[in-house]
Amino acid sequence: RYAALLLLLTIGCQSPGKRAEKEAADGNFPEAAKLFWQAALDAPCPERGRFLLRRAQIQGQAGYDDLNGATIDQAIRSCPELPDGYWLRARRNRDRGDREQAMNDARFARSYFPEARTMYSELAMELETERSIREHAQKLITELQAALDPTKPRRKLPGREAVTLTRQVPLPLTLRYQV
After folding, report:
1. 179 residues of the chain, pLDDT tens digit each
2. Is 178 in a helix, a strand, or coil?
3. Which of 16, 18, 142, 161 could share a disulfide with 38, CB 3.0–4.6 Å?
4. CA distance 68 to 62
5. Rounded distance, CA 104 to CA 87, Å?
6. What is the largest CA-CA distance in the chain?
7. Peptide bond into 46 cis (omega under 30)
8. Residues with Cβ < 8 Å from 120, sequence gap 6 or more?
9. Whole-Å CA distances, 177 to 65, 145, 172, 174
10. Could you give the CA distance from residue 112 to residue 57 in angstroms, rounded to a whole number?
């Protein structure tokens, strides 16, 4: 009986962050997310941002992707000097296919995380390659449209005003045609 009371007091006296980690380890994601929120309310920056980012990770594990993104954004707003939030959001945006936003966030985080530097370089090369391909394709489309335009006058061969480009085959006069 005393052991249960002592355990209750020990768990009750732990900080919300430690209790949240315990709940997360046990797989109780809703309770862990709630405890990380409570820990973030009482903590100064940068701990507040770290608690919010940990909450976002828990929400992601639980399948709450919309809440996950909103919590990451909230962590960045509350502690903008914390690079971890930008790095987490960069990875999330890259995974979701938003490469430009991922590149913007990786730009901030690249001086703190080597992986962010690599991601930034890869995304920059991908976007530049895509831009180059798009420009080339647009140029080809414009040239094709100009070539197929029926209202555009046809070019004549230079230096030959009245040249006919058909093969002329003489008809033998001895052939008789029957009608």
Report:
1. 454 444 444 455 578 889 999 999 999 999 999 999 999 998 999 999 999 999 999 999 988 888 999 999 999 999 999 999 999 999 999 999 999 999 999 999 999 999 999 999 999 999 999 999 999 999 999 989 888 887 877 666 566 555 555 556 565 556 555 65
2. coil
3. 16
4. 9
5. 10
6. 128
7. yes
8. 103, 106, 107, 110
9. 83, 46, 11, 10
10. 20
Give me the residue label for tokens 């828990």. 58
User: Hey, what are 74's tokens?
Assistant: 């909230």
Q: Encoding tokens for residue 95? A: 């995974």
Which tokens go with 162?
A: 């009245």
Residue with tokens 């996950």: 68
Looking at residue 1, its amino acid is R
- Residue type at position 82: L
HSE, CB side, 13 Å, CA atoms: give it for residue 157. 7
